[in-house]
Specification:
Chain lengths: 126, 230
């Protein structure tokens, strides 16, 4: 009963439902940006940029696209801080995982180079 | 009797202030105030899905960085010959644009849902599902082509054998998500067109479905960057 009452209160609250109503122009603009950014990332491959330039461009375009999708299409900028933090903070743990695995794979790589030597079929292709 | 929720006293704090963060998290009953239950739960689900996809991508990073054999060049592997010319990565580019278009139509559908426009919402959702189905179709084509060229989870003609395992696992799991999304969106679209949400006033169901769909697009952004472009 208590729950139902508070739920109804939530539904009647004008900005509970209308909270995510935004001008269509915002979505169209973001949609356009996503197209442009995707075209840019494809161009990175098409023109065959290499090395640091390639990686930084790929990462920048990727993060911009992800940011636009999460913040506008998924309405994250208009949510309360308690939800934003609950969703965006835990994935930071993944940075630790990536860091650990990067170290580990580097170690594996050099172990293979050192111990597999030149006569194993592993690196025959080189 | 007087069990009216004390938990609602802090609605006054501005939604983006640290004060609201602290008061939301320190109340007894509901942390996510003014957020519909289904929406909060969809976010939690998407958070767990983020961890799954991140584990796949991290595993891919690990095998790619530790192999001493050259990694197959995705730019060439995914090239298509169109009009007598080999265009690098073209199928993946088209798939990317299809998925972004579907995200746009979905955002429009959510917008029309909050304007209580039943027909526009339903049709835009069906358009989104159709674009999603198109994406899965192109992915099926891509898989067929690669399997015919001899790519297997344990080997391929061009280099590091881990390529196939990573490819099938990552794109397969993503394709599975898109397929589920197509079914999910079609179901909700039919219910919208039948006026179910008009009667019960729960149009946020469309927004929740939208969250899932945008997430699928979001994952593709990372797969596109790390698997196909890297």
């Amino acid at each position: 009963m208590d729950k139902a009452a508070s739920a109804m209160q939530l539904d009647d609250d004008p900005d509970a439902n209308a909270g995510q109503q935004h001008p269509i122009g915002v979505y169209l603009k973001v949609w356009g940006y996503l197209f442009i950014l995707s075209a840019f990332s494809y161009m990175v491959d098409y023109f065959g940029f290499e090395g640091l330039l390639r990686w930084s461009l790929i990462i920048i375009f990727m993060l911009l696209k992800a940011g636009l999708i999460v913040s506008v299409f998924m309405h994250m900028v208009w949510e309360r801080l308690s939800l934003i933090y609950a969703i965006l903070v835990p994935p930071l743990c993944l940075a630790v995982l990536v860091g650990l695995m990067a170290l580990e794979s580097d170690y594996t790589f050099w172990t293979r180079i050192v111990f597999a030597g030149n006569e194993t079929p592993l690196i025959e292709g080189h | 009797m007087s069990n009216s929720p004390v938990t609602h006293t802090d609605h006054t704090a501005a939604p983006h202030s640290l004060e609201s963060l602290v008061s939301d998290w320190s109340t007894d009953q509901e942390v996510f105030k003014k957020v519909q239950w289904g929406k909060a739960m969809m976010w939690i689900f998407l958070l767990s899905d983020t961890f799954i996809f991140s584990c796949f991508l991290t595993a891919y990073m690990t095998v790619r960085a530790s192999t001493v054999v050259a990694w197959p060049n995705p730019s060439e592997v995914f090239a298509l010959t169109l009009f007598g010319e080999s265009i690098p990565l073209i199928l993946i580019a088209i798939m990317t644009f299809v998925l972004i278009s579907s995200s746009g139509t979905m955002a429009m559908a959510v917008n029309f849902a909050y304007r209580r426009n039943r027909k526009a919402t339903g049709l835009l959702m069906l358009a989104t599902a159709a674009l999603g189905a198109m994406f899965v179709g192109m992915q099926a084509f891509e898989w067929t082509k690669l399997i015919q060229e001899g790519v297997r989870p344990w080997g391929n003609p061009w280099g590091a054998p881990q390529f196939g395992a990573s490819f099938f696992m990552i794109t397969g799991f993503h394709g599975f998500h898109v397929t589920c999304g197509v079914i999910y969106l079609t179901t909700i679209a039919i219910r919208v067109l039948n006026g179910v949400y008009e009667r019960n006033g729960k149009y946020e169901v469309v927004e929740i479905a939208g969250l899932y769909w945008h997430f699928v697009d979001l994952v593709w952004v990372f797969i596109f960057a790390f698997f196909y472009l890297w």
